[in-house]
Amino acid sequence: MKTSNKKQILLVGNPNVGKSTVFNLLCNKKQKTGNYAGVTVASHSGDYDYQGENIEIIDLPGSYSIYPSSEDEAILSKFLIKEQDQYSGVVYILEALSIKRGLLLFQQIQDLGIPTLLVVNQIDQAERRGIKIDIDQLSKELNVTVLQANAKENQGIEELRAEIHKGSFTKSDTVSFDIPTEHKGLVFKILAETKEENQYKIWTLLSSDTYLGKIETVHEQLNNDEVKCLVPKRLQTQETIRRYQEIDKIITKVLFKKPQFKELLTEKLDKVLVHPIWGYVIFGFILLIIFQSVFFLAEYPMNWISEFFLWFSSFANAHLPAGPINSLLANGIIPGVGGIMVFAPQIGILLYFLYLLEDSGYMARVIFLMDRFLRPFGLNGKSIVPLVSGTACAIPAIMSTRNIENVKERLITILVTPFMTCSARLPVYSIIIGLIIPNKYFIGISYKAIALMAMYFLGFFTSLIAALILKKVIKSTAKSFLVMDLPSYKMPLFGYDFKIVLGKVWEFITGAGKIIFLFSIVIWFFSYIGPKQNDDEFVATDVKLEQSYLAKMGKSIEPAIAPLGYDWKMGVGILTSFVAREVFVGTMSTLYSLDDEAPEGTIIEKMRSDRKPNGDKVYSFATGISILFFYAFAMQCVSTLAVVYRETKSWKWTMAQLFGMSGLAYIASLIVYQILK
């Protein structure tokens, strides 16, 4: 038992029971929550002070059993068993609608000799379904303190703080699971040899090849013989059956249902939303509304931000002394940073809609709906969570694959997720679509929204084709099945989700801003200097853009990119954006601000007016489509590559992803440009 002044508590439960919401309320955190399994894919910690005591809460990934079948569940097992002497107890969150399912893991934790406190969450949902739970009887049957809560409405949280402070954690002295007779001799022999007191802990050693939360890397798992898992799985199944037989006896004493049950809104909606035909139609319609909103709702704030940075650049140019500092700020840093900040409203709107879908419970239906669709491609329904999350950022999306049990499906999902259109691609798509797509409407939907939706679908279907190829390449015979509960629909927390979005947008701005700030300085420096004009100079300064070293470097790669329809400026933008895709927009904004021949106005206006020596548009329709295809396929994010290696521990797959995606981007851009020019 921990004896330091700081009390450490673990927050545990099945997936989608409200753990993250309880964690946020206890610690006043802003961790993202979602009404579907697999949101928490690593432990999150936070603390709060209560009556002079500091209490640390660790929110662990959801799991249905003590035996880990995926990497995020292994985190839970490690904390519960290996780190048992580091925490004071476990607060177990039990969903009122799924008591039977939740009691399996709870009793396993009890049998490990861990002090527990039980919280029955979402009581209101149970009452609406005519379910009554006898809390006192449940406490008596389990020999544990039981609290009621409705975390979405912030009910029961203060009582939970008080009980944690009082130390209302109960440690069971007996083991509820009766170890099978044929294994008792071996268990007692190991007990004597190891001097371990808890016989159930020895049983978990026998019935789990991943004891203590040890999960091999994806690379190691692929090379392992899967036959070794057969015996442990048989013992785990044997334990599960026996436990549920005892749990059923408890359920009959504590849970009562009204004889007449009225069909609730959730059941009515699911008849349409998970329909094998209408479900897909409605999902497509919802996406179309989101993309229309990305352009329509963001138009005014984008114009305000653009006008502010134009004014700021002019102000700096007019009030700073003429010279390199003036040029650096007015034509380099301010336009570069402004070029990316102008797209913050679009990113915010997209993320907000995604969070509302997750919070409402609809995203769980999307997982269920897509499972049958994805299986022929070597994926399962759980793969849709990383794929959809990839529309925000590929990094947390790849990390969220840890809840995919099947190693082959997990590896395929990791490798294809970067094809999904992330928020870093959105500024590139937005600026190119704004250049080449006319401002017209089709039955009330703008052409630009349709074009943006097409780019998202292009990324999605490319990921499916890539998954189909990888399914044939990666050798693994393991089978998988999607087992999940569809949660009831809930009213999203609009204000809370808005705060989360503001934080995410700020993270994007500060993260991208740092990179663009650095590249703006580098780009300005090489555009400010050029080859010396006479013997007295080391280098010429304040030269025209076409005579700068930057132009010379860009033109040196022009032969390689000219077949794609790109000039040297686009080449510089593409090279810099291999660090992060959004850098392309900042680079182009800086370059056109440094070009003395470019007209005044926004970055889109400057790019639209740019002409080739023969008078043709630089950004023709063919060139624009070529750029869109390049950014749809190319792997241009160093951070994503780092996460892919960390999750797979394989340079082979990481490099295959980098060169495969980049090669596909070049070939696809070449083909579409040559066809359309």
TrEMBL record:
Binding site residues for Mg(2+): 24
KW Transcription regulation (keyword) present: no
Coiled coil: none
UniProt entry tagged with the keyword tRNA processing: no
InterPro entries: Fe2_transport_prot-B, Fe2_transport_prot_B_C, FeoB_GTPase, G_FEOB_dom, Gate_dom, P-loop_NTPase, Small_GTP-bd
Principal localisation: membrane
Compartment(s) of residence: Cell inner membrane; Cell membrane
Domain of life where this protein originates: Bacteria
Molecular function GO terms recorded: ferrous iron transmembrane transporter activity; GTP binding; metal ion binding
Topology within the bilayer: Multi-pass membrane protein
A matching Pfam family: FeoB_N
Any single Gene Ontology cellular-component annotation: plasma membrane
Signal peptide residue numbers: none
Positions contributing to GTP binding: 13-20, 59-62, 121-124
CDD domains: FeoB
Segments traversing the membrane: 277-298, 332-357, 377-399, 411-437, 449-470, 508-529, 618-644, 656-676
UniProt keyword list: Cell membrane, GTP-binding, Ion transport, Iron, Iron transport, Magnesium, Membrane, Metal-binding, Nucleotide-binding, Transmembrane, Transmembrane helix, Transport
Family stated for the protein in its record: Belongs to the TRAFAC class TrmE-Era-EngA-EngB-Septin-like GTPase superfamily. FeoB GTPase (TC 9.A.8) family.
Protein task: Probable transporter of a GTP-driven Fe(2+) uptake system.
Classification via PANTHER family: FE(2+) TRANSPORTER FEOB, FERROUS IRON TRANSPORT PROTEIN B
Protein name stated in the entry: Ferrous iron transport protein B
Organism field: Kaistella antarctica
Taxonomic lineage from the root: Bacteria, Pseudomonadati, Bacteroidota, Flavobacteriia, Flavobacteriales
Name of the coding gene: feoB
